[in-house]
Amino acid sequence: MDYQAVIEEVAAHARPYAGQGQVADYIPALERVSADRFGIAVADIDGKVYGAGDWEVPFSVQSISKTFSLALVMAQGHSSHSGDDEIWRRVGREPSGTPFNSLVQLEAENGIPRNPFINAGALVVTDRLLTLTGDASTALLHFLREESGNPDLAFDQAVADSEADHGDRNAALAHFMASFGNLENPVPSVIEHYFWQCSIEMSCRDLAVAGGFLARHGLRADGSRLLEAREAKRINAVMLTCGTYDAAGEFAYRVGLPAKSGVGGGIVAVVPGRCTLCVWSPGLDARGNSVAGAAALDHFTTLTGWSVF
Amino acid sequence: MDYQAVIEEVAAHARPYAGQGQVADYIPALERVSADRFGIAVADIDGKVYGAGDWEVPFSVQSISKTFSLALVMAQGHSSHSGDDEIWRRVGREPSGTPFNSLVQLEAENGIPRNPFINAGALVVTDRLLTLTGDASTALLHFLREESGNPDLAFDQAVADSEADHGDRNAALAHFMASFGNLENPVPSVIEHYFWQCSIEMSCRDLAVAGGFLARHGLRADGSRLLEAREAKRINAVMLTCGTYDAAGEFAYRVGLPAKSGVGGGIVAVVPGRCTLCVWSPGLDARGNSVAGAAALDHFTTLTGWSVF
Amino acid sequence: MDYQAVIEEVAAHARPYAGQGQVADYIPALERVSADRFGIAVADIDGKVYGAGDWEVPFSVQSISKTFSLALVMAQGHSSHSGDDEIWRRVGREPSGTPFNSLVQLEAENGIPRNPFINAGALVVTDRLLTLTGDASTALLHFLREESGNPDLAFDQAVADSEADHGDRNAALAHFMASFGNLENPVPSVIEHYFWQCSIEMSCRDLAVAGGFLARHGLRADGSRLLEAREAKRINAVMLTCGTYDAAGEFAYRVGLPAKSGVGGGIVAVVPGRCTLCVWSPGLDARGNSVAGAAALDHFTTLTGWSVF
Amino acid sequence: MDYQAVIEEVAAHARPYAGQGQVADYIPALERVSADRFGIAVADIDGKVYGAGDWEVPFSVQSISKTFSLALVMAQGHSSHSGDDEIWRRVGREPSGTPFNSLVQLEAENGIPRNPFINAGALVVTDRLLTLTGDASTALLHFLREESGNPDLAFDQAVADSEADHGDRNAALAHFMASFGNLENPVPSVIEHYFWQCSIEMSCRDLAVAGGFLARHGLRADGSRLLEAREAKRINAVMLTCGTYDAAGEFAYRVGLPAKSGVGGGIVAVVPGRCTLCVWSPGLDARGNSVAGAAALDHFTTLTGWSVF
């Protein structure tokens, strides 16, 4: 497989879609990004990286951070007495079937979020990470620096502050779960760490490399084990069924790869046993997924035949 | 009408129900009340008061305060430029059809609570009162002292503190409405005033007298006008359709009077043009209304024929 | 009270609203009615009738029939062993809080409709009437002829047939309740009787007179008893809390009388102990209530002060 | 891969689970099946079949038929002008997030079922198949006989009749969709064909062989093309995200294969490019999936490492 040739063809196919859709505008720091950016990177399981377009330009990872927080909680669980099952008593694994920030489901299901990728579920994961590490956002940042090999990764304070200014919905979710006893730490602290996690800036390169363990069945680039094979497989399963907001079924149908998207326009996707990809273009469709990014992944699986199905 | 004879017969009928149901136990200060208390008071439109049983024992007014907050906002609206209609742009007048603290409805209706007596609606009323007065809970206390003629009315700090310890659900409601732009003041401030309002202690006597303006078509005991007749009628309409949590239809069917209940076991009811009643007994039915209190009101309308229907 | 003078002033006030709103157009037979019709009739408790405008023009009663079906089931219950309580085990008395033909509530509450005036509840009432009489629609027609004193009342076959052509939603409701065991008769039979009941044509005069027992605490015009006072009061309570679709709270707030509306543009309202009114104008507001009819009732209670509150 | 050895180990592992859970008892014909049955069959892509336990005992396919109806509609679409996209305008591809027979989602989404595997969606697929073939259930039976190579496959009339006796929920779904214009054929006809499809009896062997095209990227056993590779992939994607009622996320997490279950206790699963499996054991978990069947598939992917993730 000549990865470079493939991703250049994918980029040529997808770039016309850049500029379509709407750039997230609920916080000023996201709105400023130029809509016609497009980047793609692929990291194979041996750690070689290929890129095209704006693949080295940092962008706000937003919800993509949820995949890494979950992995870190599962990895941290190894050394705790509770194991990785603790988190699954407090958050489900089922697709949500309702908008990603819905309170309806929480009310019907006693404060247990349907999965770790809706906002409520990610707040529970952050809460758990805070308990396990004492500093959830810093722990995540260090983890991402290590996995990506990029020591310059940093929070974007303007983004974190902006999120906080528009944080009433997340505060409502957190207080609501707290009313069911499903938070271990004070609401303001959980919210704050959650926003910092979302504000991390990374490039397609950084994310494709950092997500390598998901294609390597849990192994780090250096061969050491981060997660059990079973655990890496399970994160991929949750990504495929829940990773792209309320479009997971459509995404599985079109692309057929585990993937996690963010409103910054990035999407990380995994071909288990082969490679991890990251695409980026800020224009979002009605469900919050990058238009050009989805087109790129669609074309990638068409060219390679590497859908999981 | 010999009020004293009637309420003594009502008391005799209802007292056996005292002790039935569950005393609210979500905060210690409520739980401590003896379940077999029962009191009833009637204030006629001339200001004469009749009582039986524990009618002079103070109890926690809880949600009954919502009726008076609403009246105060409507009265304050007279002197503002906005009039009493301002509040009705931010809260509806329809029965909720779902449990009183539900978030589902709020989500479906863009942060506008269905009515001012569900918790979300009462938070909006408190928020409005805070804007109009600068100190919502103190304004309400002074208003209740004046209307009841009892200068000793006070907050119960233990109750307010306990509520705050269990306040995540209300904080969730408030943040959720704030995310829709339906709060004017900071969430913690609104919540705090809301809890203080609920913590006020009053007896059946105090409440029957204080609610006299609802039977007098808006006139105070001294003949001065608090509300327009139209406004008093409208509060009664909201009480009848929304005043007893998710049992308003059942209450109208059995009793047929505008009424507002609280989880402290009190119920205020109005016979327009005739009198205001207050009954109290701490045991609550599954929907949060006093068992003996409802039995008393049922018997009262049977004896007098004074259902509005 | 000079009823004739009052209703002429009411008519003068309300007639400009005739033509506003939308005429129900889901079936051709309703759509054909001229939007600018307006009629009003009042029957006092002595049986005297006053009218203005198109008060003798027959129109399709539609959901107003639900009030009379309910009364007939309650009256029939007297002679059965079960009494009037049987029906209340199969249908609730609470406002619905959701659109009148909603399936959501039914699913959440095990096939028990919230009240007898939403379609699902009316189907249960029809089913019960079918069991009690063997022919629900004919029994209702005879009852209405007798109460109105108009032997010419008849079904409108075109309307009944049109309803049946658009009856999938009601068939869904009926089958859904049957799946919970809450129907006694076959679905097609219940549906058919339901449509025939709705298709009856009556004028404002007919309806005001026929509804006289609701103002006379259950007595017929000839002084014989149709319902216990308690039962008539209860129907009024259900009308006030549930009689005007999802606008019952608003209606209580503006008008303050028990009322039942239909998509044919009629509204029957009751002033207990005084009179029964019927207004008619085909233009409907967004919630399915006659625009000019509601304006007329609003003005009527303003003029007379006869709100129940 | 020694398939025979693997499935014997899987059978040894899973057989102790046979007898756990509840046998579907809503129709007598299903209830009669002995709970401790267990069978497993694997058909590799070359058409060789391996079996263990009760792998040749016919059972009621129930909802597994939905996968084949969908495939047949997609295949039939090739020869129609509309192509396979027609069906996707009338049914979605997203997990439902609510119980499989829910009306709530249908109401919120204008009569478009979330996916073809919930009952409402399967009724739309049956309706489409009826339009395309004139006889949906016979067309499906012939298709299954052909794909399984078993000319003796037949409907179980007792099951179809029993389903019809308990068919009010499905009739409600069908009438409800008809009220939104989302059915092309009369409700009773669609319902009847739907029940006949569910009543077909097949063994693990029959189903594993018949589902071979899903592992062969759309090719039949004889090498002729039934579906485009893209189409077969898409059915697998819908199976993985929606194939096991409200447990699809959990199933992906534990097993990681596209699968479709039925309340008869069967589950068909696909390892794309390798093989199709069928497991059967009648005891169901709370979500309607075979307890021993799920345990078997879990163990199968553990032994082989053939999860798609």
From TrEMBL, chains A, B, C, D:
Substrate binds at residues 63, 119, 163, 170, 194, 245, 263. One of its GO terms (molecular function) is glutaminase activity. The keyword Acetylation applies. It catalyses: L-glutamine + H2O = L-glutamate + NH4(+). Keywords: Acetylation, Hydrolase. Pfam families: Glutaminase (PF04960). Its EC number is 3.5.1.2. GO terms for biological process: glutamate biosynthetic process; L-glutamine catabolic process. The keyword Hydrolase applies. It comes from the Bacteria. Transmembrane segments: none annotated. Homotetramer. Belongs to the glutaminase family. This is Glutaminase.
